[in-house]
Specification:
The complex is a heterodimer.
Chain A (H helix, E strand, L loop, with lengths): L2 H37 L5 H5 L12 H32 L4 H14 L3 H15 L6 H25 L3 H9 L4 H29 L3 H5 L20 H9 L4 H32 L7
Helix pairs in contact in A: 1-11, 3-6, 3-8, 3-10, 4-6, 5-6, 6-8, 7-8, 8-11, 10-11
Chain B lengths: L5 H39 L2 H6 L3 E2 L6 E2 L2 H32 L2 H16 L2 H19 L8 H25 L3 H9 L4 H12 L1 H17 L2 H6 L17 H10 L7 H35 L1
Antiparallel strand pairs in B: 1-2
Helix pairs in contact in B: 1-12, 3-6, 3-9, 4-6, 5-6, 6-9, 7-8, 9-12, 11-12
Classes of the chains: A mainly alpha, B mainly alpha.
Chain lengths: 285, 295
């Protein structure tokens, strides 16, 4: 009877799902094209070399680039060892039970806590309690808190993907627990862990809100020399230019966005490269 | 060999145990600090006035601390962005798991991942310089800063999250049930709407709840595009202010520690923490419960 109508409904639905999927592709393309179109005219070596300025044609993001790089390196050295040890402890040492599931639930919750709350946390701990001021160190510590849950989650997944036989073989040859964990499991899981670390770091250098809350500068005319110096970062510079009314500064913001996106894109490519070439054990994600 | 040294072994074990409780202490610290600063705030402003007051003007004389305008701004963004992202995300996931050829999947998945990885400040820029002018050309009374423009980009931002969580849910769906339905003559449409969606309802719910939490906490896009006018309104073409945007506004000014402006940030932050914690907790609870039932 209505046999063909049932199939027409199906085709119609299929078309709808296709259109929904196309929406993301179109949104992404529009966004990228818009930013390239707005920003290309200010994209020059000057932009990378100059300090910010009241005059749009002289303005650059050199201090912001340096700030972002400093922050990324510092955050790496703070968050990675902590995240790695935590993940190893949770996966390899902690026995299954209430305690472990509490820790895992807590980490999941932390990973979806809004970033601005980490900013408030950093403000209260690192600036008002420990007195690190609005320095690179405060920024890096705050961002480390922010990405720690993400690093731990990806690292535990990579560690879990290492087959049990590897551990058993190592134990059978007389290795002790620490030796098995650090000399067998860790190297085997390393590519997966590295991918997670790179993706977390790329999240960190795109962050703006927590850095505003801990009082990172929006206008700065020197580059940081030590970890106690004030700093600015590329996303903050973008925000400060976007919030000005003049169109020239919006174009500048767009060209800074291009620089930031190139940086993020290369980090992501690196992650994909490591995943495809070195990763032996994968968990389905 | 260093691993045979007993001192090394002991210190390594201690270090490991310490990092294990690190994350718990972060949560504990957040609760203590937010609680402490909000406590001093509520010594000065009664909790009742904060939660039920309809006027928010902590930076202007006469000061007023009713948080409802900020809450209404936040939930306006949440409702508008979710009504864009949930249907699109769900349909995208359906396309990915039920209809897409591997070729489509190969293109669509990375595109969604890129969308998810774009910094929020970039979305804010996009809202202000592209979507707002577009809205203005369609509906001229649109204000420069408006809730709709911010909601659209927040929707685009959380769409990948919804579609990936739903895609995971559909992937976990038992293939035997699908084959059963199709072999009894159901069209894919009938299978999806009458079996797959109802069976995955709890997981779709979890995706929804987690997306709400993301939208509540979203900061830069709403700060840039939605404005800084705390008010209770239903008109999405007007400027509003969210809780997160308020915290940014205060942080950009130079507020001394211990002052009432400084403490409002923590009171608003505590409310934000409670709301997102509640939604995240429900979301993760649904997810773990469901996978437990399946296995």
């Amino acid at each position: 009877m209505n046999f063909s109508w049932r199939y027409q409904k199906n085709s119609l639905f299929k078309l709808f799902t296709l259109l929904a999927a196309l929406f993301s592709l179109i949104a992404l393309t529009t966004l990228l094209v818009h930013i390239l179109h707005e920003g290309w005219q200010y994209l020059s070596p000057q932009l990378l070399k100059n300090f910010p300025s009241r005059f749009p044609h002289k303005a650059g993001i050199y201090p912001a680039i340096m700030g972002s790089l400093w922050l990324m390196i510092l955050t790496f050295f703070i968050a990675v060892p902590l995240g790695l040890l935590s993940a190893l402890y949770i996966e390899e040492y902690l026995p299954k039970g209430k305690w472990k599931s509490l820790i895992m639930v807590n980490i999941k919750n932390l990973s979806s806590m809004p970033s601005i709350i980490y900013g408030l946390l950093g403000l209260a701990i690192f600036i008002h309690t420990l007195g690190f001021d609005h320095s690179l160190l405060s920024g890096a510590l705050t961002l480390s808190l922010l990405i720690l849950p993400m690093i731990i989650i990806t690292a535990t997944e990579a560690i879990r993907a290492v087959p049990k036989s590897l551990r058993m073989a190592s134990f059978a040859l007389g290795a002790e627990k620490h030796q098995v964990v650090f000399l067998q499991v860790l190297p085997a899981a390393l590519p997966g862990i590295l991918t997670g670390i790179i993706l977390s770091l790329s999240r960190a250098i795109g962050e703006t809100a927590p850095l505003i809350v801990i009082g990172a500068a929006t206008y700065i005319s020197f580059t940081p020399e030590s970890i106690m110096d004030p700093f600015t970062v590329i996303p903050l510079q973008i925000y400060s230019w976007t919030s000005r009314p003049q169109a020239e500064f919006h174009h500048l913001a767009a060209s800074a966005i291009i620089v930031l996106m190139i940086l993020l894109f290369s980090l992501n490519l690196l992650a994909v490269f490591i995943r495809n070439h070195f990763q032996k054990y994968k968990s389905r994600l | 060999m260093i691993f045979k040294n007993s001192l090394f072994k002991k210190s390594l074990s201690t270090l490991l145990a310490l990092t294990g409780v690190l994350t718990l202490s972060i949560t504990l610290f957040s609760i203590i600090l937010l609680g402490k600063e909000s406590w001093s705030f509520f010594q000065k402003v009664p909790l009742k006035d904060f939660l039920f007051g309809t006027h928010w003007a902590p930076l202007l004389e006469p000061k007023s601390f009713g948080v409802l305008p900020l809450l209404s701004g936040t939930f306006m963004i949440v409702i508008l962005s979710i009504s864009l992202a949930l249907p699109l995300g769900l349909l995208t996931a359906t396309f990915l798991s039920e209809f897409a050829s591997p070729h489509w999947r190969k293109w669509l998945k990375p595109a969604l991942e890129i969308l998810a990885g774009i910094p929020t400040v970039v979305y804010g820029y996009f809202a202000l310089t592209f979507i707002t002018p577009l809205l203005k050309s369609i509906y001229p009374p649109t204000e420069i800063f408006n809730a709709l423009s911010a909601s659209i980009v927040v929707g685009i931002m959380i769409l990948p999250m919804i579609s990936s969580l739903c895609d995971d849910a559909f992937f976990d769906f038992p293939i035997s049930l699908k084959e059963g339905a199709l072999s009894l003559g159901a069209t894919p449409f009938e299978f999806i709407t009458q079996i797959l969606y109802p069976a995955s309802l709890s997981r779709i719910g979890a995706a929804l709840v987690l997306a709400i939490s993301r939208a509540i906490g979203e900061t830069m896009a709403v700060t840039i595009a939605a404005g800084a006018t705390p008010k209770i309104t239903l008109n999405p073409f007007e400027s509003i202010q969210t809780m997160t945007a308020y915290i940014v506004q205060v942080s950009l000014g130079d507020t001394p520690a211990g002052g009432i402006e400084y403490q409002t940030c923590f009171a608003v932050g505590a409310l934000l923490f409670i709301l997102t914690f509640f939604f995240n907790w429900i979301g993760h609870k649904i997810m773990t419960r469901w996978s437990w039932e399946l296995s």
